[in-house]
Amino acid sequence: MDVLMARERRYLRFVKPSYDNFVLPTARHANIIVPGSDNSIAIDIISTHIRRQLDERATRLRQRLAGAVPRDLTPEALNPDPTKEYLNLTLLPQTPQLKGMFTILRDNSTRRGDFIFFVDRLSTLLVEKAMELLPYRQKTVVTPCEVAYHGKELDAEYVCGVSIVRSGGPLERGLRRVVNAIPIGSLLIQSEAATGEQILLHLQLPICLRHRHLAEQSWVFLLDAQIGTGAAAFMAIRVLLDHGVPQDHIIFITFLVARCGGITVLQRAFPQVRIVSGAVDSSLRETWLEGVEDDDGQTAAEGRKVWVVEPGMGQIDFVVVLAHSTLWNSM
């Protein structure tokens, strides 16, 4: 009897008031309440309804990104007023030297050794340009001539790189050449075979991005060879934001950007993300051919659309990664 009375007192003192104060007010706003602790029939009905809704609302993200309205991304349109920046897209100065490098990289008859050399050289130029977007502070040093020099030093707590496997691989060597001992993480994003939607299969981030309080102070160089549909870029940026990296601390480095397609959506969805590119290409071409790689390094499955950048530089990531691995194995 005493045990029953003690249980009743606990119920009236703790359980009932907690239900009245917390559970009941929120339950009034619930669309569905499943009675019982193990109501398998109600759970099956709800899960079936959710699956049906998801099937009816297939995202088809890549197809929508590829069909985005083209924007004028020429250097003149990007920055007609030197005092104002447009679209958060920074292009390398279109000098004869740069155009000569792109001519070699686009030439189908270029030897593999020359291709690798100029890819590494171009990646270095892109990273050096991206370094200008990092914050700097004033610093004065005394030279060996006992003269004070007023310069600048990096004003960033943490700087790291994240490469989208495998298309971001050709940019990693340039990043390591410019930033000594920089930590580089990786993301593996592949297309689902049936629908072509993006799936995150692998995630290995530098230690400064694994803890939110550190990620908030970090600057990230996101590496990808090309932005065509931009589906992989979209997911990669979303992953970094979910880990706490501020949007304006992400600098996307890429060799090529298509004038239409995903660049438009990226700049609308993430207006503070900076993009550094070597050139702007004319268009995206839709194809169904099996074995053709699209802008994100994805190989087309039979019967599924892919979009390739034109004129483009071919399978740049495959050539560079294969050559580097061959060189490493021969040493």
From TrEMBL:
GO biological process: pyrimidine-containing compound salvage
Presence of the UniProt keyword Transferase in the record: yes
Enzyme Commission numbers on file: 2.7.1.48
UniProt GO MF annotations: ATP binding; uridine kinase activity
Classification via Gene3D superfamilies: 3.40.50.2020, P-loop containing nucleotide triphosphate hydrolases
Domain (Phosphoribosyltransferase): residue spans on this chain: 93-286
Pathway in which the depicted protein is active: Pyrimidine metabolism; UMP biosynthesis via salvage pathway; UMP from uridine: step 1/1
Top-tier EC class: transferase
Pfam families reported for this sequence: UPRTase
InterPro entries per UniProt: P-loop_NTPase, PRTase-like, PRTase_dom
Domain of life: Eukaryota
UniProt keyword terms in alphabetical order: ATP-binding, Kinase, Nucleotide-binding, Transferase
CDD domains: PRTases_typeI
Family indicated by similarity: Belongs to the uridine kinase family.
Name of the featured protein: uridine/cytidine kinase
Species lineage: Eukaryota, Fungi, Dikarya, Basidiomycota, Agaricomycotina
